[in-house]
């Protein structure tokens, strides 16, 4: 910026720059509006553009969000899109300390990525779907199953119904019938104990003095997560569009 | 419910109940929905509960949203969750008048459910994934492919590049590489013309004097959409959790 500019000129320039940057129109998706209980029909983009003829609906990167690399990796999603990861990092380290196989360490590391980066409700089903093309079938199964098994104790491995659930959902909370039906299917499955192990290491009482870094798991990810060469979202996998939704959550179409 | 109550009294009683339910519930938005608002904050359940003593994290129906039946059908989603469907209804009628086979009329009727009910970005991929367990494979393929084909003219089939796209995205808009790659693949596919037909009947100049109602397509849905007996969302299909998210967009976990 030119040093000879006055403060007021600079403010004008900044404002001009911002108005240029805001020459895009964000139309929220139905599911986002419903989460706000907003049932109004979507705003009419055509009418908005008539007021600001330079504006366009957003079809590229969202200027409000951190830029993603052209070929994003799983680690890039941790960095630029996911919320705090301390919980899954502590779970994964807990699993390492307990001597679990590497693929189960990965399962613990990824079990809540839907909560952290995508959709909370039924996050185990969503998370399993997100990673399915890239991990061992058992890992997908276990991530899906942890959603259900969390609600049922297993004394043989020392897993109790979480005290945090009593507090969060109430002492009288009953899982939905579809969760109960999935539990009945899952408890007799050959991979039951893998799903169960995620719940055992799904620890909620964190030691606030322990910091776990994602770098500790770079090699586990490298050996157990088939990172697509084209980048997550651009590999034409059955779930590529799901990763793209996280890259550009407000894309118009 | 007491039969002596008037309709108005019943509506008031239901509204009062919804407000009471809301007092007891804590609603936390999913990360993806917040990213669409460029909101990078991270809600903490324990803090929210401390601020609202006695309230629990929402794990059941959202009291702000219309109640869904226990075994919801596709039509229930049109009624209680989707936004305005006039565009889809007009497309389907257009296809019907043109003599398209029933399954393609269904494809036209459902091609934009990603937009009217779920996530706008990459809506063709989302819509296809949602309906895949319930429709003919060709219908899924066509819904998925219409997303890419929309951006490429096929004059021989009667499909020019939409004027509306020029206005909305700009004259210089170039589709993303993954769209181009999907177009190249779709162009050579045996079902290319099915997806192209969705584009041809994807009409944008609505006649405001014509109102098409969903009832016109009840039989076509009945014959071509395998409604699960347990209700959409509760049939343990690979996309069941997606329908459940539409049902309860703010479920905590």
Give me the secondary-structure category of chain A.
mainly alpha
Largest interface, with Cβ-Cβ < 8 Å? A-B, 64 and 64 residues
Strand order within the widest beta sheet of chain B: 1-2
Separation, N- and C-terminal Cα atoms of chain B: 32 Å
CATH topology type of the largest domain in chain B: Hypothetical protein af1432
Shape of chain B: globular
What summary fits the major beta sheet of chain A?
2 strands, parallel
Please describe what this structure looks like:
The complex is a heterodimer of chains A (253) and B (253). Chain A has 14 helices and two strands, in the order αβααβααααααααααα. With 253 residues, chain A is an all-alpha fold. Chain A has two domains: 51 residues; 174 residues, Hypothetical protein af1432. Chain A has a two-stranded parallel ribbon with strand order 1-2. In chain A, helix 9 packs across helix 12. The longest helix of chain A has 15 residues. Chain A is globular and about 70 Å long. Chain A starts with 6 loop residues before the first helix and ends in a 6-residue tail after the last helix. By secondary structure, chain B is mainly alpha-helical. Chain B has two domains: 51 residues, no CATH class; 174 residues, Hypothetical protein af1432, CATH 1.10.3210. In chain B, strands 1-2 form a two-stranded parallel sheet. The longest helix of chain B is centred in the first third of the chain and has 17 residues. The relative contact order of chain B is 0.15. Classes of the chains: A mainly alpha (253), B mainly alpha (253). The interface between A and B is large, with 64 and 64 residues.
